Amino acid sequence: MKHIILACGSGIATSTAVAAKVSDLLNDNGFAGAYSITTCSIAEAVEKSQDADLIIATTVKPDGIACPFISGIPFLTGMGRAAAEQQVLDFMNA
């Protein structure tokens, strides 16, 4: 099972919105039950990245992230969303 962290400034608003979109994407592509998603603030993401398989964040990548990182901004704006979705799917298929 892959552990995905969704991070935003506060760990409440945009990370939750993006988590729902990523979950729908993964479930629609046959990954139901193959992942878990946790939301947190970007300040917590560096430490939590030690135990995560992937970080998706709606902020700039902070120094110290210890796992793969994907920008979650396209899930909010729609611009570049197809490419971001493909990155997530490629990660899951790896």
UniProtKB/TrEMBL annotation:
Signal peptide: none annotated. It comes from the Bacteria. It holds the Pfam family PTS_IIB. InterPro entries: PTS_EIIB-like_sf, PTS_EIIB_2, PTS_EIIB_2/3. Keywords: Transferase. Residues 2-94 form the PTS EIIB type-2 domain. The keyword Transferase applies. This is PTS system, Lactose/Cellobiose specific IIB subunit. It comes from Fannyhessea vaginae PB189-T1-4.
